[in-house]
Design goal:
- The chain contains no helices and eleven strands.
- With about 120 residues, it is mainly beta.
- The strands form two sheets. Strands 2, 4, 5, 6, 9, 10 and 11 form a seven-stranded mixed sheet that branches. The protein has a four-stranded antiparallel sheet with strand order 1-3-8-7, with no helix packed on it.
- The N and C termini lie far apart (about 40 Å).
Length: about 120
């Protein structure tokens, strides 16, 4: 069974930093990443990383956030610097893999990140 467990969320002041980590188990994934959902908004992509190391970032976090992956430990992390109040959201770890003709996504439980003003 697949399980994604996030850690590292919390309360931080604007300009501060947080590091989110996601420990995955139960499968090998082609891609992993982070999404977030702010109050009153839909869930959006923050950053993703493929098994080959290719990364993709939302424009709003480029230059501030860095995603990394440790394939040996099956973990993905998100270093968040220069945090802004608009970064406040529930952050979800995501992992995906191909099977047959399809693609399966898995989600963590989410961790709250609050950037106070």
């Amino acid at each position: 069974q697949v399980q994604l467990v996030e850690s590292g969320g919390g309360l931080v002041q604007p300009g501060g930093s947080l590091r989110l980590s996601c420990a995955a188990s139960g499968s090998i994934f082609n891609a992993m990443g982070w999404y977030r959902q702010a109050p009153g908004k839909q869930r959006e992509l923050v950053a993703t990383i493929t098994s080959g190391g290719s990364t993709n970032y939302a424009d709003s976090v480029k230059g501030r956030f860095t995603i990394s992956r440790d394939s040996a430990k099956n973990t993905v992390s998100l270093q968040m610097n220069s945090l802004k109040p608009e970064d406040t959201a529930v952050y979800y770890c995501n992992a995906g893999k191909y099977y047959g003709l399809g693609y399966q996504n898995y989600w963590g439980q989410g961790t709250q990140v609050t950037v106070s003003s």
